[in-house]
Write a structure and sequence with these properties.
This protein is of the alpha+beta class and 132 residues long. It has one domain: Cytidine Deaminase, domain 2 (3-Layer(aba) Sandwich). It has a five-stranded mixed beta sheet with strand order 2-1-3-4-5. Strand 4 and strand 5 form a beta hairpin. The chain is globular and about 40 Å long. 33% of the residues are buried. Bound molecules: tetrahydrodeoxyuridine (THU). The site of tetrahydrodeoxyuridine has 14 residues, from helix 2.
């Protein structure tokens, strides 16, 4: 897998962010086994709670194109943060359910700092379907 290419795609995805309120762009790129890359960017709203994060938009974009959990190889997420970007709690919950446990999650920033994690690093002891 070409991690640098996936990071570049996540940076490209930032161009589609709609962030009139926070001015904080987040881009994400999701790679599937067949090599397809799905973009996501954060989209805000005057009703602030209606905003959607970049990484969740990338995941939902992939699913909306028929991607299934086990098709997913990696997800890169980028923002202009001091340290590699840290996904919010809601995104961690969604990542926990919709990505396979072996998926590589690349957290990065515009300076090129990189942290590679998996979904259990992001959300240990997750609430999931087995709890229902
Ligand atoms: N945001 C993301 O898109 N992903 C994250 O991991 C952190 C936060 C967005 C939500 C909102 O549009 C803006 O960043 C500021 O919180």
């Amino acid at each position: 897998m070409d991690k640098q290419k996936l990071i570049k795609e996540a940076i490209k995805a930032m161009d589609n962010a709609y962030v009139p309120y926070s001015k904080f762009k987040v881009g994400a790129a999701l790679l599937t086994k067949d090599g397809t890359i799905y973009h996501g960017a954060n989209i805000e709203n005057a009703a602030y709670g209606s905003a959607m994060c970049g990484e969740r938009n990338a995941i939902y974009n992939a699913y909306n194109h028929g991607v299934k959990k086990d098709d997913i190889v990696a997800l890169a997420i980028v923002g202009n943060t001091a340290k590699p970007i840290s996904p919010c709690g809601s995104c961690r919950q969604v990542i926990s359910e919709l990505l396979p446990k072996e998926a590589l999650i690349i957290l990065t920033n515009m300076k090129g700092d990189i942290l590679e994690v998996n979904k259990e690093d992001l959300l240990p002891f997750a609430f999931d379907d087995s709890d229902l």
